[in-house]
Amino acid sequence: MAHPDRTPLIPLEKRRRGIYILPNLFTTAALFAGFFAIVQAMNLRFEIAAVAIFVAMVLDGLDGRIARLTHTQSEFGAQYDSMSDMVSFGVAPALVMYEWALKDMGKLGWIAAFIYCAGAALRLARFNTNIEVVDKRYFQGLPSPAAAALVAGLVWVVIDNGIAGNDVRWYACALTIFAGLSMISNVLFWSGKSINLRKSVPFIVVIALVLAFALVSSYPPGVLFALFLAYAASGYVGWIWSLKKRSKDHAAEAGEPAADTAIAPADDAPRP
């Protein structure tokens, strides 16, 4: 027991600071999965590398939720999670795609891979600086895990159909650049954070979840790639829809005064 008259060498609030084991354990596992994907790509085991990126995505989704549920959020955990995301969803997908399909394209191949890698870094930096000022319901730019799922999904589904990466290198290059630029765009993507897991839902929602799991398990490569491709397209569909709606609103606002002027009679017009 400390003496009441003695001042502790280390302040109590600093001694209580520490690293929470549980959420950072999942972050470390996600980091390992991303590093494992890089190693497997170097060994030309691209299908295993693609699956490892999806595993990292699942683990990355769990660490934040576990931290919130157990009230173990910390600044260290947030920064560590960003470093893990950069490896698992920035460096790993870029290297896997480069080794699988872009390697024989010369400068264009590594430039496409670099665009993706730089896009992931910029996306994470912007997310960390704007986290307090953006709408929680939407992501500004395509999330890096979704972009990584696009790249890894293409690798997985093409290999599963017995097609070589060199045969689809142009499609792979276009998708890699699209994913990289989408991450740094201002297009809004639904975040899913408005879903309350503690709230009761109708029974039909449970049935829909069961059917979704059954659909994914029927053909994981194709279904997962199609889902994330649809998610990436949904942001641009919503963006185009908002542009059209905005232009209609501006046209309506500009047309109302002109219509009033045309209908109103002139003061010196002859009266009937």
SSE blueprint:
Layout: H1 12-16, H2 21-42, H3 46-69, H4 75-102, H5 107-129, E1 138-140, H6 144-160, H7 169-183, E2 188-190, H8 203-218, H9 220-263
Antiparallel strand pairs: 1-2
Helix pairs in contact: 2-3, 2-4, 3-4, 3-6, 4-5, 4-6, 4-7, 5-7, 6-7, 6-9, 8-9
Give an overview of the whole structure.
The chain is an all-alpha fold. The protein has one domain: Four Helix Bundle (Hemerythrin (Met), subunit A). The protein is 71% helix and 2% strand. The chain is built from 9 helices and 2 strands. A two-stranded antiparallel ribbon has the order 1-2. The relative contact order is 0.09.
Short description:
With 272 residues, the chain is an all-alpha fold. It has 9 helices and 2 strands, in the order αααααβααβαα. It has one domain (19-246): CDP-alcohol phosphotransferase transmembrane (TM) domain (Four Helix Bundle (Hemerythrin (Met), subunit A), Up-down Bundle), CATH 1.20.120.
For this structure, the CATH topology is Four Helix Bundle (Hemerythrin (Met), subunit A)
Q: Order of strands in the sheet with the most strands?
A: 1-2
Q: What's the count of strands?
A: 2
Beta percentage is under 5%
Write down the overall geometry. globular
Question: In CATH terms, what is the architecture?
Answer: Up-down Bundle
- Structural class of the secondary elements? mainly alpha
Rounded to an integer, what's the Rg over CA atoms?
25 Å
The termini sit apart by 103 Å
Count of folded domains: 1
